[in-house]
Amino acid sequence: AVVSTQSTGKKLRTVMDVVHRVQWDDQYNPEDFVVGFLDRFDGLVEEEFQYFDWSDVTTVDDWESFCIPKHRVYYFKHHGEIVWDRRTRTDKIFTDKEIKCDQCEKT
Q: pLDDT (tens digit, 9 = 90+) per residue, 4-35?
């Protein structure tokens, strides 16, 4: 079931809120996530979460790491399922207690 923040009246969390949750919450493995973003030349593309340098784009050396402006991030996928999408205001990262996943290791 898609959870839309529009129907609940809650504000959609920011890209960096999602990034920090994925990086620091023990229930998530960053390797399980893919980021959909708008490339200036190729349109909407996907890359693995860990491919990105999530620092401020103005502080990163473009030749050493990959960093994009946060407004270009459209969605996050977890094992192929969209769990956060700014276009549809979908948020399963902060609205569900955990993402249901048969592929994830249980600790």
A: 555 556 789 999 999 999 999 998 999 999 99
User: What pTM, to 2 d.p., does this model score?
Assistant: 0.79
Q: Which two tokens stand for residue 80?
A: 């192929």
CA dist., res. 67 & res. 52, Å (int): 6
Query: For residue 18, what are its two tokens?
Result: 């999602």
pLDDT tens per residue, range 70-94 = 999 999 999 999 999 999 999 999 8
d(CA 85, CA 76): 7
Cβ-Cβ contacts under 8 Å for 17 (sequence gap 6 or more) = 94
- 9, 27, 58, 78, 89 from 24: Cα distances, Å: 26, 9, 23, 16, 23
Amino acid at 73: V
